[in-house]
Amino acid sequence: MAFLELKNYRKKFGENEVLKGISVSLEKGEVLAIIGSSGGGKTTLLRCMNFLEMPDEGELYLGGEKLFDAAEKKSYSDAEIREKRLHFGLVFQQFNLFPQYTVFRNITLAQTLLAKQDFKRKKADFAAVCKKAPKAERKKLKAEQKQILAEIKANQKKSIEEKAENLLSRVGLSEKRDSYPYELSGGQQQRVAIARALALNPDILCFDEPTSALDPELTGEVLKVIKGLKSSDSTMIVVTHEMEFAKSVADRVIFIADGVIEEEGTPQEVFENPQSEKTRAFLRKSLEEVF
Amino acid sequence: MFWEIILELSEGFLITCEIFALTLIFALPLGLLVALGAMSRFKPLKAVVKTIVWIVRGTPLMLQIMVIYYGPGLLFGVRGIGNMLAVMIAFILNYACYFSEIYRGGIESISKGQYEAGQVLGMTRSQIFFKVVLLQVVKRILAPMSNEVMTLVKDTSLARIISVIEILFVAETFALQGIIWPLFFTGVYYLLFIGIILTIVFGRLEKKLNYFKV
User: Does residue B41 sit at the A interface (CB-CB below 8 Å)?
Assistant: First the structure.
């Protein structure tokens, strides 16, 4: 079984069936590009993987384990869904940075919140241990625990900050650490958004048309960052309109039209020797746009 | 005589300030609860809250004060509540409803993307609300809120209809004795309060939140 297995995803909005049974498999370290015309279901597929939408049917396996089964979806609690989400990162078309925080805080916020929850749990565990201990030893035990907890806290903070610094330099924005989102260009904002998504170490990083909201001269810097991630073995799924980019970065390409996969294969197969008539028409059109 | 009048006016002004401050302290958080109720996915709660807001916003505050003050005694024959308490209940309820609509507008104006960004980063609903959305809402609603708060200062004068001795009540007693200037003086109190203190406070707040753009 592949690293990611998506089986027979279906999603309806009212009467409108947007995904009509889509199956995807992806190996670790591979980059999958999803192309297709607007309204074809690309974005919905991505949102279903991140559980921003819940598919009506379908199963998802990650690393050989069943992560999601639409037949059981009613039994998932909010907390479970949150945990499942953490396997995936998502970079939005509109960046969606948090405007009131600096670039650095945008990257560290979610990690800090998660670390806080961890810390609380650990503290509760310790307290439970303490309660069980004989009375005479409690005081000593408490003092020891206090020290350990303080260390944990300091380590958490340090590792989160180090990671954020690393990510910032990876997207080439170290000097913008303390800027606010409105002070950045669109391309810079998107690079911060990529760093923010990477900060949680997702197994798979998804991009929803990451350059569609950018001026043409700014798309290059974002695509370059994504390319850079490929060389560091990230597993990625990219919904894109940039055909050239899909060609050069993707290991595999999927063409989606009207909620089904019309064509699937290596970039070479899909772009140079498309089998389906719809794919050919789509590729012709998207080439016309360029010239 | 002059200083006695000033002293009495100042006492009245203290009552005015008391109504103002207590209303803000209770109505600001209550308004948020009302707003969340009005946006609730639980339909019965939403319907009840929306109906209450509709009634409160659709009737005069003066009427509400009267109903709360006289209502219990005339309807159920129980001893009514004190006039200050009745005024406070009416003001807090009334302003909570107005605030709630401002909050709701602010909350709904935040783009879905902010919530989704929080979601994909594994945040809980309350984390998203308090850590991501709230400050953006505050920034957006500052201007309409300052309007409401200034109106509140002036609305406190309605308390006099059930004999709460706020500043205008005091000034009127002098006017009935044929002394006109306390009325003008009252105007000065209001002007100082709204025109200087509140304007400065809201100006500061706005400046403080100017470091980011929504």
Answer: no
